[in-house]
Design brief:
Strand order of the largest sheet: 6-5-4-7-8-12-11
Oligomer: single chain
Helix content: 40-55%
Number of helices: 17
Number of strands: 12
Order of helices and strands: HHHEHHEEHHHHHHHEHEHEEHEEHEHEE
Radius of gyration: 22 Å
Shape: globular
Largest sheet: 7 strands, mixed
Distance between the termini: 54 Å
Strand content: 15-25%
Length: 345
């Protein structure tokens, strides 16, 4: 029988979930107003922040105190605020910054279609298409500022895990890595800096790879890496013996994923390797991964039409496309991602 303690804890859980949407809006408002960059390494009063942001002082203080309650700020004395460790991740500068990612996931681009989640559950269809009148990638292709934010967020997320992949995976046996859907080149940059005999190719759409040349130039890698524009549903570049696909497959249905993997299979040599970097869901909800991974799965349903997958589902995807999964590894530094290694069957 449930005790009073059990019921009180359960009620607290339900209440916290009920307020999670207001919490997300409070989180997003502070990001849009630039609180983290204003406060930086110092402390500011709500009046000082209101002056800098052009907002109403009392309302500003109320939002700042909510940020403090959420663990993003601390209030060491009344009406004086400083960033916590989590809050510092929301500054626009810094190697570990998550600001663009947080801004994207609190932007109407992502949140508006969530209002029709129940409709997506009823039909299995992506509600983004009905909300915005077109699919996700077609929409951002017509909105340069939104596309820039999306691609920057993808690069920011990759930037936190790319050095770990480069450090943990043995690159010594490979001569040429091809990153399919490689965006701004963050992953290839980390791999080439780890192994100076390796060459690279970043393959993406012109929008997706718009800032790749700058990334390569800033890291002195233009002579070791090519940028190729194209559509991975049509074909992918040949010439690599190591093919990476990071945070691509979860955007798409099994049929679309089969097309991408099939195109890689047509060009990869028999002794080559395919590395898929994605979240791998456990077979049961056992607490081994954080809840936001399952929210990511629903986000794929609502906004893109893809999904997160289990190990068995990745095995089947690869098998249907002519690959055999040989290893799946993860770790505390992998930011929730797993490295799925497959070989041509």
């Amino acid at each position: 029988m449930d005790t009073n303690d059990d019921i009180a804890k359960a009620a607290a859980t339900v209440t916290q979930l009920a307020f999670s949407i207001p919490a997300g809006h409070a989180f997003g408002a502070g990001i849009q107003l630039g609180f983290a960059d204003m406060i930086a390494d110092g402390t500011l009063t709500s009046s000082e922040i209101a002056t800098r942001s052009g907002t109403q002082p009392q309302a500003t203080r109320r939002l700042l105190r909510t940020w403090a309650a959420l663990g993003l700020l601390e209030e060491p004395e009344p009406d004086r605020f400083a960033l916590t460790v989590a809050g510092r991740l929301l500054r626009s500068e810094g190697r570990r910054s998550a600001q663009v990612t947080a801004r994207m996931f609190t932007h109407p681009l992502i949140t508006d279609a969530w209002r029709s989640l129940d409709r997506s559950i009823e039909t299995g269809r992506t509600s983004f298409d009905e909300t915005f009148g077109t699919d996700f990638f077609s929409y951002i292709g017509q909105q340069p500022a939104v596309a820039e934010m999306f691609h920057a967020a993808m690069g920011q997320g990759t930037g936190r895990v790319a050095p770990v992949i480069a450090r943990e995976y043995d690159l010594s046996r490979f001569r040429h890595v091809v990153d399919i859907g490689g965006g701004d080149g963050t992953l290839v940059t980390a791999l080439l800096r780890q192994r100076d005999t390796l060459r690279g190719t970043v393959f993406d759409t012109p929008d997706g790879a718009a800032s790749t040349e700058e990334m390569l130039r800033d890291n002195g890698l233009t002579d070791r890496c090519d940028v190729v524009f194209g559509d991975f549903f049509a074909s992918v570049p040949s010439g690599g013996d190591l093919y990476f696909v990071k945070s691509v497959l979860h955007d798409w249905s099994d049929e679309h994923c089969g097309t991408v993997l099939g195109n890689i299979r047509r060009v990869i040599p028999d002794d080559g390797r395919l590395l898929i970097v994605e979240t791998v869901l456990p077979d049961t909800v056992d607490g081994s991964i954080p809840p936001y991974m399952y929210l990511s799965d629903l986000n794929m349903l609502v906004n893109l039409g893809g999904r997160e997958r289990t190990r068995a589902e990745f095995d089947e995807l690869c098998r249907a496309s002519g690959f055999t999964v040989t290893d799946v590894r993860s770790g505390p530094d992998m930011m929730g991602f797993s490295l799925i290694e497959a070989v041509p069957a």
